[in-house]
Amino acid sequence: MNFEKFNTLVEQRPYYGELEQPSVVSEYKNAGCGDGYRLYLKIKDDRIEDIRYTTTGCSFSLVSLSIICDLAKGKRLNEALAITPELMESYIDGYPERRKNYAETAIKALQKAIRDYENGTGLSDKDFISKKKILELLREKGSLANADLRKANLDHMDLSYVDFTNARLEHTFFSGSKLTGANFSHAKLTGAYLNNCDLTHACFENADLRFTKLTGSKLDGASFKNALYDVGTRVDQKYLDIFSQMRQQGKEIYLKAQ
């Protein structure tokens, strides 16, 4: 594996982000690790004119999606469907043995996006709200309280002190965002991705944080009083004390499954 190429792709994240007016927006979940992928394709005359992605995943997800986007851009749909794991691997001189599944998963995500385009089964306007629309809503109302932002992408934004009270934020992407002093009280954050965020002095009182990812985030001074958590709620070791403020719910579901 060429670690220099790999690290460059991680740092630069080519093709990361949203597309305005895409032909299809498609979601795919990596069953192996639970990472969420979203692909945005602009298709014209049976050819992928442009492509972007967002993900909640690790560096291997970032690299694999960057590679699949680069390989797919400009290709006809049948050509894009023919991309192989071997071609993916040649891009960085091979994957480590235990990470080869990431190339296969990126290919499956692209194949699903193309199927969604052909079958009209991608995310609809009802299911998908762009950053542009979210910022317009924030300017108009002055807050995002009570907003339905499920599955929205709010990665790498400055949303310090924004009011999200009672908002629907299930499976919403916040990775890398600045959320200092933000108010998430009573918000539904089930399955949301808040990795690597600045959540200093944020309020999560009475919020639903079941299966929410908070790893790599700054939680100093944040309040979690009466927030819900379960075995899928993830935080760094140094912040485990937040669970003493919270209420566990859903444990019996996981015990039955074992």
In short:
By secondary structure, the protein is α+β, with helices and mostly antiparallel strands. The protein is built from 7 helices and 5 strands.
Number of extended strands: 5
Name of the CATH homologous superfamily of the largest domain? E3 ubiquitin-protein ligase SopA
The domain count comes to 2
What's the CATH topology label of the largest domain?
Pectate Lyase C-like
Q: What's the CATH C level of the largest domain?
A: Mainly Beta
Strand order of the largest sheet: 1-2-3
Q: What's the tally of helices?
A: 7
Q: State the order of secondary-structure elements, H for helix, E for strand.
A: HEEEHHHHHEEH
Could you tell me how far the N terminus lies from the C terminus, measured between alpha carbons in angstroms? 37 Å
**Helix content bin:** 25-40%
Strand content: 5-15%
Major beta-sheet overview: 3 strands, antiparallel
CATH architecture of the largest domain: 3 Solenoid
Report the radius of gyration as a whole number of Å. 19 Å
* C-alpha geometry: globular
Secondary-structure class: alpha+beta
Overall pLDDT metric: 91
Q: Ranges with pLDDT <50 over ≥5 residues?
A: 252-258
What order do the helices and strands come in, and which of them pair?
Elements: H1 3-12, E1 24-29, E2 36-44, E3 47-55, H2 59-72, H3 77-81, H4 85-90, H5 101-119, H6 131-141, E4 228-229, E5 247-248, H7 251-257
